[in-house]
Design a protein that fits this description.
With 107 residues, the protein is α/β, with parallel strands linked by helices. Helices cover 24% and strands 32% of the residues. It is globular.
Length: 107
């Protein structure tokens, strides 16, 4: 298992679903800067990350919906990391369905 060891000012983790994605952006110090459920659309994603994008790395679990966001990040020059689902499970234990993405909020 390989771990990301580079330092960035901001880290964005995405719980990606078909129609919605839940973003969490952390500062290097671990402060939560953004916790937001947004539509899984390029424009919504770019608006949400805009204040942080100069020093941002984006991480997504390897599921069937990750391709478009990887392509978008590459096009926009944003560093993108893909986490293998089995590694994520090994790190965080059993996956449970209590994430905030299960109930969409108003965009």
């Amino acid at each position: 298992m390989r771990f990301y060891t580079e330092r960035r000012q901001f880290y964005c983790g995405i719980d990606l679903h078909t129609r919605w994605m839940y973003l969490c952006i952390l500062s290097h110090e671990g402060e939560i800067l953004l916790h937001k459920n947004i539509p899984a659309e390029p424009a919504a994603f770019l608006r949400a990350i805009d204040p942080y994008r100069n020093e941002l790395v984006v991480g997504v679990e390897c599921i069937f919906t990750w391709y478009w966001i990887a392509d978008l990040c590459q096009k926009e020059g944003i560093e993108f990391l893909l986490g293998h689902a089995l590694y994520m499970k090994a790190i965080h234990g059993a996956k449970v369905k209590n994430d905030r993405c299960s109930v969409p909020s108003a965009a």
